[in-house]
Amino acid sequence: MKHYFPLLLLLLAIAGCKPFTYPTYIPHYHVGLSQSFPTKDSVMIVIDNPLDVRIRVKVLSEQENEILKQANPIIVNPREKREVYFPFDSLEWANLDIGFNYNWYEVRLTDSLPELRVPFRSGKAYKIMQGYHGSFSHNSDYSRYALDFTIPVGDTVNAAWDGYVVGVTQGHSRGGNDRRLRDYSNFVTIYHPDYGVYTQYVHIMKDGALVEIGDTVSMGQAVGLSGLVGFTSAPHLHFNVVAKDSFDQKLKSIPAKFGKTLKGSDMKKGILIRRK
Which residues 6+ apart lie within 8 Å of 151 measured at CB? Predict the structure, then answer.
């Protein structure tokens, strides 16, 4: 098949069609950050938090400033648009670029985890297509403890725990067994501040998200419709729990448990999982 791909691109060009392109950026949550200089000796930082969860913001500058140090980090409440003023004593400081770094305020160690609910409707049963450390795609720090449930296209995907929706992408429709399609995986991401973890629901069908960024969701609430979008060989829901244990550390996949007795490590390929 790979030998015919260059020919296909050539035929598309001859026909006047644009060849298929892959995205370089996937939109996620967005916090508004801007700066202005309302007076000659101060800078104003405006932070617009659209989410139902507190965030903390670090204001960064190449030049040392004691007032800046004392004010950092800035805590912004849910749905708050906050204006913060910093006086300065030289025009040189005012002319420097100011950077930002932001993250959730509730960053916790992940010593304990919630007893999750399997991410589909009551009375349904689906097999595990790929479990922990799956060789097909669960072999990186970001995905090694993910679980793939063989949920057919159009079936409901449900929240595994209470939380806030912090990421939704649902505009893609292309899917197949091609790693370059990884970034076309529509998804819903939910943050769970009680435990400092995120759950991810990936391969949602086009326009299949049932929630929006900033929504508060309850355990068991419908959040999307399963699809065949992104890097996948068959319809399924890719479910992943990710966390970090410090402000700047990258997110990584962690093991999950469901109810009192069922662990994610028990969910081997081919096992039927039923939600009572």
Answer: 120, 126, 157, 226, 235, 236, 237
